[in-house]
């Protein structure tokens, strides 16, 4: 039987929605780099770095109604010190074409607010080069959880092209202590996400198109 020619316009376009490349669900009594804390999609690896003397502790009652707890990061200063940060890293191999769109996280102040940071800023690096900065992403922190999102622009600074290997790092800084600093000024963090759009390698797209063609052929019989 001869299958009639197919009009590709009859098929819906293949669209790829937003993907969470890396999700750190930080937990009580768990190191931020524990395998159980990280979920990856499209990315080949992810990690957390603590630089400039910043360290962590854990606490109970995490954000998003979670009972698994969260992590506190401390030893911040009153003003931003570029060498003191928590870094969230994600690496993409050469099998996907990806575009970062945003960095999302839950943050809260710590106990005596005047002794601990009230503001948070971030800086995004691609392969060690700074490509995005927002130093007033969150201000006026309280002991309630706040859902914060930094939206990136478009262009090659936020893209890992097919055939290349790229590492993105979001460095998070906490600062602005209104009173006498605590011994270890800190903030709480939970549910950190690096989001964007991922287009599979061409072979995967081709298979999806062939599936649509086969489906159309069956419908025309």
Characterise the protein shown here:
By secondary structure, this protein is mainly beta. Helix content is 9%, strand content 44%. The protein has one domain: Sandwich (Jelly Rolls), CATH 2.60.120.260. The radius of gyration is 22 Å and the shape is globular.
Strands, count = 13
- By CATH, the topology is Jelly Rolls
Q: Judging by the overall fold, what is the CATH architecture?
A: Sandwich
Q: Roughly what is the average pLDDT, rounded to an integer?
A: 87
Q: Tell me about the biggest sheet?
A: 8 strands, antiparallel
Tell me, briefly, the overall form: globular
Structural class: mainly beta
Residue share in helix: under 10%
Tag the structure with descriptive keywords.
single chain; 221 residues; mainly beta; Jelly Rolls; 8-stranded antiparallel sheet; 5-stranded antiparallel sheet; 1 helix; disordered C terminus
Summarize the structure.
The chain is mostly beta strands and 221 residues long. The chain has one helix at 202-220; strands spanning 18-24, 38-40, 45-51, 55-59, 70-74, 85-92, 97-108, 119-126, 129-138, 146-151, 159-160, 166-175, 186-199. The chain is built from one helix and 13 strands.
């Amino acid at each position: 039987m001869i299958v009639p020619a197919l009009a590709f316009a009859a098929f819906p376009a293949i669209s790829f929605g937003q993907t969470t490349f890396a999700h750190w669900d930080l937990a009580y009594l768990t190191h931020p780099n524990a395998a159980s804390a990280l979920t990856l999609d499209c990315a080949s690896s992810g990690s957390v770095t603590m630089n400039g003397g910043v360290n962590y502790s854990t606490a109970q009652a995490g954000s998003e109604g979670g009972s698994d707890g969260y992590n506190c990061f401390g030893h911040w200063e009153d003003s931003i010190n570029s060498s003191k940060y928590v870094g969230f890293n994600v690496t993409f191999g050469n099998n996907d074409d990806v575009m970062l769109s945003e960095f999302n996280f839950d943050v809260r102040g710590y106990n005596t607010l005047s002794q601990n940071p009230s503001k948070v800023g971030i800086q995004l690096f691609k392969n060690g080069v700074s490509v995005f900065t927002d130093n007033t992403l969150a201000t006026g922190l309280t002991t309630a959880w706040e859902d914060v999102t930094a939206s990136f622009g478009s262009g090659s600074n936020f893209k890992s092209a097919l055939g290349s290997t790229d590492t993105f790092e979001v460095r998070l800084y906490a600062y602005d202590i209104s009173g006498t600093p605590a011994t270890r000024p800190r903030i709480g963090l939970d549910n950190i996400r690096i989001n964007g759009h991922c287009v599979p390698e061409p072979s995967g797209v081709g298979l999806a198109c062939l599936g649509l063609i086969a489906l159309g052929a069956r419908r025309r019989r």
